[in-house]
UniProtKB/TrEMBL annotation:
<feature type="domain" description="GGDEF">
    <location>
        <begin position="193"/>
        <end position="327"/>
    </location>
</feature>
<keyword id="KW-0597">Phosphoprotein</keyword>
<protein>
    <recommendedName>
        <fullName>diguanylate cyclase</fullName>
        <ecNumber>2.7.7.65</ecNumber>
    </recommendedName>
</protein>
<feature type="domain" description="Response regulatory">
    <location>
        <begin position="27"/>
        <end position="143"/>
    </location>
</feature>
Amino acid sequence: LRARHATGKDLGVVGSIDPDSDASEARIFLIDDNEDQASRLMTSIGDGNHQVIHEIDPEVALGRARLGDFDLIIINLSIEAMDPLRLCSSIRSFEETRLTPILGVVRVGDTRKLVRALDIGVNDYVTRPVDRNELSARIATQLRRKRYVDQLRSSFQVSLEMAVTDQLTGLYNRRYLASHLSAMFDRAFWTGRPLAVMVIDIDHFKSVNDVHGHDTGDRVLQEFADRITNSIRGIDLACRYGGEEFLIAMPDTDLAFASVVAERLRQEVASSKFKLNSGRDELGVTVSIGLASTEDSSEEDTAQKLIKRADEALYEAKNGGRNRVIK
Ligand code: GH3
Ligand code: MG
Ligand code: MG
Ligand code: MG
């Protein structure tokens, strides 16, 4: 399954989650204000293909941790230049490092500090003197966990986007519109700033399918969706409302301005042909557009009624001969 977001971003293939995927070549950030201990640790970590970056100054480390995109942060819990627990809790609180595993290095017997560190969100620890094999094993475990969380987050993100996206065109789907239009409508009502709705239907689209085939029809829908995306603002919400019917909700837009946008889109579609089979053929397409806005809303108006009024205007545009905008 592939999906395109309204911005044209490719969402990629929805991957399966593999917690055992290769755990080598991680970026590890070591925060330790003791040069000798740090270099001993670096040698101990040194066997994997990991890239280890050491920072001796904890204050500087705070900034670097946020920017470094690290897979694991190892902190010497005996640092003196800063309270190590404050360092850990800061790293936990930053958005960029909220989920980055932290491995503490503690002195044997420093149980009180260890308990507090674990409480703050340090994921695991090793005691000094550090056993090389134990360190490797604990690093591997944290890296595996990190990869698992990353994969889980990105596939969740993809699922979320797919649930609100129309697969063919990459525009939002009707479900997304349903969940957002009421809020846009309410906001227009409370702010007193108009919300305009544009319903667009491709003219004689059935004959595009009949003459050129369903695949060509699909490509026309995709190109038309791209033209819509290029002609609206970031705050506008464009969705595929039905088969060859699209809806654009435009906040802070009165009927007069919506007409200008609609007329520009109608003309753009009518005047520049759609390219088929990589440019060898071209197809002329026209659209009919119906408009409505909250300017002429009464008290009992709703988002659904607003769409209905735009639909009625569209119906008029069709009856009037198509390739036109009616408000
Ligand atoms: P009108 O000017 O009155 O809108 O005529 P029309 O032919 O566009 O309208 P009609 O509702 O009769 O036909 C719409 C067609 O759109 C029929 C349907 O097969 C086609 N269609 C709907 N969804 C898709 C799709 O996802 N892909 C393709 N290729 N065609 C689709
Ligand atoms: Mg129709
Ligand atoms: Mg149509
Ligand atoms: Mg239709």
